[in-house]
Structure formats: structure tokens, C-alpha cells
């Protein structure tokens, strides 16, 4: 529903749609006509450089968002999320990358977490990508190694396509 709202609101403005989708994916908040990462205000120019668009397109995007109460309601509530998957190896933690074949299947994350917990391994973070704009991957970060038995059990869960241990 959220992505349909974005696509409907920006269908005539592909550059603005690109910016709006990036804001959502990064959790960048729009307040008035300004863009924030947490409490840090980001300049239109910096965003434009990063997305290879004109800074005026960034300003137009925030105006479009501000002019629609539903869009404004979504964008003013966004928050960035820290993901530990890239720093996990440095910290000596494990990362399971799980590709789901059926993202609509209820209880998949619970079943995966149960298999990990059954081996006495604590989950530090679980983060999933939006399946509408990615492959439907879930990353599970643990402070200790996930035993091969748990990896095999996770692979057998209906709705799991593959498991990669990083």
C-alpha cells in the first residue's frame, strides 16, 4: 500500500519518485521542506549529488510530499535504522543471510529464530529488506557462531529458499 501511494503520487515525476523511494529506503524524514537523518538536517545539494539529480528536483520532491497529507504523514515518521551486518565480521559475530521464497508466509521469522534459539544462540539483530523492492532477504546477526545443525534446520523450513553463513 505504501509503495502504491508513492508510485501514484510521483508517476508523472520519475526523478522525484527516485528521491522519494530513496528517502524511504534510508529512513530519511521530511519535515516541512527539509530532509533529516535522525536530527541531522541534510542539504538538498548533498542529496542531489548522491542521487545524480538537480537539487531543484529534491526541493520539488519535498514540496510534493508536503502538499499531500497522506504522503506527509508517512514521510514525517521515517527513522534511519542501524544494520550491523557489515560490522558483524569485525566484531567476531555471525551473519546468516536468508533468502525467502515465500515472503507472505506467516511465522517464517519466528521459525527461523526458534531454530537458532534451540541451539542456545542469542540473536543480536534481525533485519529484513522490503520484499517489494528486493529479493525478500532477512539478515540475522548473532554474537556467537550458528551451529551447522541450525543452518540445516533453517534450510528445511517451508518458505526458505537458501541460507548463506557469512
CATH architecture type of the largest domain = 2-Layer Sandwich
The share of residues in extended strands comes to 15-25%
Can you count the beta strands? Answer: 7
CATH superfamily of the largest domain: ACT domain
Radius of gyration: 19 Å
* Alpha carbon gap, first and last residue: 33 Å
Class by alpha and beta content = alpha+beta
Shape: elongated
Strand order of the largest sheet: 5-6-4-7
The portion of residues assigned to helices is: 40-55%
> Secondary-structure element order, as H and E?
HHEEEHHHHEHEEHE
Overview of the molecule:
By secondary structure, the chain is α+β, with helices and mostly antiparallel strands. It has 2 domains: 2-75, Arc Repressor Mutant, subunit A; 88-165, Alpha-Beta Plaits, CATH 3.30.70.260. It has 8 helices and 7 strands; from the N terminus they run H-H-E-E-E-H-H-H-H-E-H-E-E-H-E. The chain has helices spanning 2-10, 14-26, 44-51, 55-67, 69-75, 88-91, 108-118, 148-155; strands spanning 29-31, 34-37, 40-42, 94-100, 123-128, 137-142, 160-165. Strands 5-6-4-7 form a 4-stranded antiparallel sheet, with helices on one face. The chain has a 3-stranded antiparallel sheet with strand order 1-2-3.
Amino acid at each position: 500500500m505504501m509503495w502504491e501511494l508513492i508510485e501514484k503520487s510521483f508517476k508523472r515525476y520519475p526523478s522525484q519518485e527516485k528521491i522519494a523511494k530513496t528517502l524511504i529506503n534510508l529512513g530519511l524524514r521530511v519535515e516541512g521542506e527539509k530532509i533529516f537523518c535522525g536530527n541531522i538536517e541534510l542539504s538538498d545539494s548533498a542529496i542531489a549529488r548522491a542521487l545524480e539529480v538537480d537539487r531543484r528536483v529534491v526541493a520539488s520532491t519535498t514540496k510534493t510530499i508536503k502538499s499531500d497529507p497522506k504522503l506527509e504523514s508517512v514521510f514525517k515518521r521515517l527513522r534511519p535504522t542501524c544494520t550491523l551486518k557489515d560490522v558483524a565480521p569485525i566484531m567476531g559475530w555471525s551473519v546468516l543471510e536468508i533468502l525467502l521464497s515465500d515472503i507472505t508466509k506467516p511465522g517464517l521469522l519466528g521459525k527461523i529464530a526458534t531454530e537458532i534459539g534451540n541451539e542456545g544462540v542469542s540473536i543480536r539483530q534481525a533485519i529484513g529488506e522490503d520484499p517489494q523492492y528486493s529479493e525478500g532477504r532477512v539478515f540475522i546477526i548473532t554474537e556467537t557462531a550458528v551451529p551447522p545443525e541450525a543452518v540445516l534446520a533453517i534450510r528445511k523450513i517451508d518458505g526458505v529458499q537458501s541460507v548463506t553463513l557469512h
